[in-house]
Predict the 3D structure of the following.
Amino acid sequence: MVFPSKKDWWLGIVIWGAALLLIIPPILFPNFGVWMTPAFLDKQWIKVILLGSTGVILLWIWFRTNYTVKEKTLQITYGPFKKKVNIDDIRSIRQTKDPFTAPALSIDRIEINYASFKIISISPKDKQTLIQHLLQQNPNIEIK
């Protein structure tokens, strides 16, 4: 079952703003920032590829962040990146508002402790249903 990420409006502004600032200026304003451009970026096409691809990855993360529960695995997808967590290795789950980097598009998150001292925070829209699916496959998960 696939669970989409909850998305905070302010984080959308940050991601979309950064993506557009990385994609649009090198295309529309080729001489923008020439005075502060390193020598290896003298060619316009290099700027478009480097900055544009970074902007595309940000948008890819915005549109493709989700969490899939299947066959004893929680698969976390955020843009081009994927991580798998064995559900049998999950020790505990707790609510968190931790603002640090995570494959989550919201501050309203759940923190998953698994394996030996590994932690990952995710932000599914429907946290309770995701937790229920995880508990069905591993009833030993402690909910804090």
Summary: The helical segments are 9-28, 44-63, 127-137. The domain at 1-144 is CATH 2.30.29.30 (PH-domain like). The longest strand covers residues 90-96.
